[in-house]
Amino acid sequence: MVLRYLLEDHAELSPRAAEILEQQQVTLPIEVACEVVYVLQKVYSVERDTISQRLTELVSEGLVRMDKLAKVIKAQGGT
Question: I want to staple 28 with a disulfide (CB 3.0 to 4.6 A). Which of 9, 66, 68, 75 is the partner?
Answer without folding.
Answer: 66
